[in-house]
Amino acid sequence: MSGENATDEALVAPAAARNGAVILDVLRDVLPRGGQVLEVASGSGEHAVRFAAGLPDLRWQPSDPDRRALGSIAAHARSAGLPNLLTPVELDARAQAWPVTRADAIVCINMIHVAPWTATVGLIAGAGRLLPDRGPLYLYGPFRIGGAHTAASNTQFDEDLRARDPEWGVRDFEAVLAVAAEHGLHLASQIPMPANNLSVVLRKAGA
Ligand SMILES: C[S@@+](CC[C@H](N)C(=O)[O-])C[C@H]1O[C@@H](n2cnc3c(N)ncnc32)[C@H](O)[C@@H]1O
After folding, report:
1. Tens of pLDDT along 133-168?
2. Structure pTM?
3. Ligand 1: centre distance to CA 114 (Å)
4. Is the pLDDT of residue 183 over 90?
5. Does residue 9's CB lie within 6 angstroms of at least one atom of ligand 1?
């Protein structure tokens, strides 16, 4: 994200502009027809606006723990004026209790490698608490599969992330699935995405 320090500045994340359309295509298949979607780690808020506009039958609840991000989401939302885009809430995935108590689906894009592993565990635990039976948790980002990166660019990206913060890094797909299983979620689908990313759909077990 780029921008100054103003509280309510609409930040611009170039990656969100690049990947928004392809992610929306996947979300159309993954998300329920109606109800409320919780987006964890909304960042600039550009995805929230795009997805709320593209999926008008869903209520879109953006969130982030970062105050600048919350200001940016609010600024983008104000400009968009969408009736189904809710006021952003402060939510840290690691918290034991979240400020949102129900969600028919949860979406989290490009967060788990840019946060400590405890954020991944907290995200999945929260999904296990909030989602109804068969409710989806959608993840997007790079993953290591079978203990290896899927592209040289991801190896470099992982090194860059770990140099910025030793607690960050591209996550092992199998480790994410193992935590998911502990919280009653199983892999429903994995979809290759541009730039060596993956869409991962986990679903809460249920009838
Ligand atoms: C790379 S940005 C991605 C933002 C947005 N999803 C996108 O794709 O443009 C990572 C985001 O994760 C958020 N984040 C970091 N740690 C978090 C945590 N523990 N819980 C929830 N969000 C977190 C950051 O504040 C930041 O907005």
Report:
1. 999 999 999 999 999 999 999 999 999 999 999 999
2. 0.96
3. 7
4. yes
5. no
The amino acid at residue 148 is: A
Query: Containing H/E element for 203?
Result: strand 197-204
Q: What is the rounded average pLDDT for all residues in the chain?
A: 95
Give the mutation target among 49, 61, 68, 114 for probing the ligand 1 site: most ligand atoms within 8 A of CB: 114
The DSSP output letter for 194 is G
Banded pLDDT at 2 (limits 50, 70, 90): very low
- What angle do the packed helices 67-80 and 46-54 form, to 10 degrees? 40
Nearest to 138 by CA among 111, 168, 113, 114: 111
Q: Looking at this protein, which amino acid is placed at residue 207?
A: A
- Give all domains of the chain, ordered by start, each with its CATH number: 3-204 (3.40.50.150)
